[in-house]
Amino acid sequence: MAINIQTPNGEITLTNDVISIVVGAAVTDNYGVVGMVSKHFFRDNLTEILKKENYSKGVVITQDGSDISVDIYIVVSYGTKISVICQNIQQAVKYNVEQLLGFELAYVNVHVQGVKID
């Protein structure tokens, strides 16, 4: 699925991979985030942290009419306040998508899939 944005000069199509890279960069720059994981973390029994090439596995983008929402799947570090980390991620993702890609997100949902003890 791709996001289509209509402009006066024509239509812009952004693929999920492009959006996932922007979202993934915003997520992994936050303190307390160990990394992103697959949205099927428990079902697939994958315990690996996703690298930049695979951010699309940890980001789900949905478009409902004009509303675009993002679901993010992460692992956090033990001893950090999860609610603050999630709020920071929501703000960073919303800001980066609006500034870099030029459209607004209706929702940014953060799913904490695990806590890693260092």
UniProtKB/TrEMBL annotation:
UniProt superkingdom: Bacteria
Pfam families xref list: Asp23
InterPro entries reported for this sequence: Asp23
Family: Belongs to the asp23 family.
Identification of the protein by name: Asp23/Gls24 family envelope stress response protein
Source organism of this protein record: Facklamia hominis CCUG 36813
